[in-house]
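Researcher: Final request for today, and then I'll write up notes for the group meeting. The sequence and the SMILES for NAP follow.
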Amino acid sequence: MREVVVTGGGTGIGYAIAAAFVSLGDRVTITGRREHVLKDAAARLGAEYLPFNAASPLAVKEAAARLPQRVDVLVNNAGGNTNLDRAKSDEDLMDVAEAWWANLNANLMSAVLVTTALTPRLTQRVVTIGSIAARGTGSGSYGAAKAAIEAWTADLAAELGPRGITANVVSPGLIVETEFFRGRLTDEGVKRRVEGTRNGRAGTPSDVADTVLFLASPGARHLTGQVVHVNGGAYLGR
Ligand SMILES: NC(=O)c1ccc[n+]([C@@H]2O[C@H](COP(=O)([O-])OP(=O)(O)OC[C@H]3O[C@@H](n4cnc5c(N)ncnc54)[C@H](OP(=O)(O)O)[C@@H]3O)[C@@H](O)[C@H]2O)c1
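Model: Predicted protein-NAP complex:
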C-alpha cells in the first residue's frame, strides 16, 4: 500500500486525485487550510486529513511531524489564482507586491515548502499541478507562479533522480467542477475556453487525476522533469 499525500485534497482536482489513489487501495492523506472541508472530504473518501497552510514555513514544519513518515507519492495540488479573492489595484505598489506574493506563496512556495519538508522521506514520485496559464498570457502573477513551478521541477527532478524518484508537472487547461473560479465562471467564459480546445469540451477533475495516477505508476518510471499538458489541445506542449 502506497502512502500518498495530496495537498489541497479537500476540493476539486485534489479531491479527485485523492479519490483515484484511494480506489487503488493506497493510504491517502489530504491537506488544506479549512478543517471542516477536509474532515468532511476525508470521511467521504476514506482518507486521513491534516489541516495546515502549505504556504507558511512554520505551519509546514509543524505539520511535517504529523504527516506519514514514509511518503511514496506527493501531489502538490494546493493553489489557485489569489487575484480572484482580491480587489484589483495596479497603482499602489504595496497592493501590487501583496498580490504577487499571494500568488507566488499559494502556488510556488506551497509546493516548494511541502516538498522540501518531505524530501528525506520521499520514495517514488512528486507531481505538482501547474496550469495552462504558465504558457499563455493574461493571468499575470498566477501564470508567473505556475511558470516558476516548471523551472523548480526541472531542478527537483535532477535532485531526486539519483534516488529513483521522478518529479513532474501536470498542467491543466480549464477544469470545471472545482472551487477555482469562486463561482464566477460564466457560460461565456466556458464557451470561449472550450472553443480553444481540439476536442471541444472542458476538462474535469478526473481528467487530471487519471494523468497523475499514470505518472505515479511504475510505467512512468523514466518520465521525469516534464510538463504534461491536460487541456484538450488548447495549448500544444510540443
Ligand atoms: N480549475 C481549473 O481550471 C484549473 C486549471 C489549471 C490549474 N488549476 C490548479 O489546480 C489546482 C487545484 O485547483 P482546483 O481547480 O481544484 O480549485 P479548488 O477547488 O479551489 O482547490 C484548491 C485547493 O487548494 C487548497 N489550498 C489553496 N491554498 C492553500 C494553502 N495555502 N495551503 C493549503 N491548501 C491550500 C484549497 O483549500 P483551502 O482553501 O481550504 O486551503 C483547495 O482545497 C490549483 O493548483 C490550481 O491552480 C486549476
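Model: The mean pLDDT is 97. The first strand starts at residue 3 and ends at 7.
Researcher: Thanks, that's everything.
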